[in-house]
């Protein structure tokens, strides 16, 4: 896979990677879909996936500088990660046969309902109870959707947000969850879309966005109070859901 390395391609791709890094620093991850549409303006989605797979790992490893083990909810990760691993495996097997448009539509609908219920309560942070079944389901669903549709964030958020974790613990747990997920899905994505030539050159250029993007997002995170943090997460879920909805509908129309 290759592409023409124009100024527009470089600027748009760099901006998309920087945005993903910023989200990683501010919210711990899970919102990479916000940046991927930008890359689709200058390359096909498969090429974008192959380019981003190694960059996700760089972002995650740099993000661990800020989201250290003390910020992780280890009991939740112990419940979530086995499902994530299984889900990524299932997602890879289904990648060639599943209708990506249907996945996008279902995830958009579920996410919008989830966010709507939160706003209906006036944005109150209600502390729920942990459930092994919910955690495993969230892990599996996130694994499948992150592999198939680059949208693993909503299932994880639907499990973590109702727990009422502190903003630091929420971001740290999310960061570690997707560090594991991105490490695991890098290999299958590179098998599906191996970067070569100009794509590799563009990948190296975009590495420069990682430190500054993650750091800037982290600095914003420290200035947010608990309610602002959760409000930001839910608003980003709306953006993600709208993008998924558009992908699904436009895919059937075209």
From TrEMBL:
Q: Does the keyword GTP-binding apply?
A: no
GO CC, alphabetical: plasma membrane
Parts of the chain that traverse the membrane: 12-39, 45-64, 76-95, 101-119, 170-192, 199-217, 229-246
* Places the protein is found: Cell membrane
Q: How does it sit in the membrane?
A: Multi-pass membrane protein
Methyltransferase recorded as keyword: no
Q: Which UniProt keywords apply?
A: Cell membrane, Membrane, Transmembrane, Transmembrane helix, Transport
The family line of this record is:
Belongs to the 4-toluene sulfonate uptake permease (TSUP) (TC 2.A.102) family.
Q: Can you name this protein?
A: Probable membrane transporter protein
Q: What is the lineage of its organism?
A: Bacteria, Pseudomonadati, Pseudomonadota, Gammaproteobacteria, Pseudomonadales
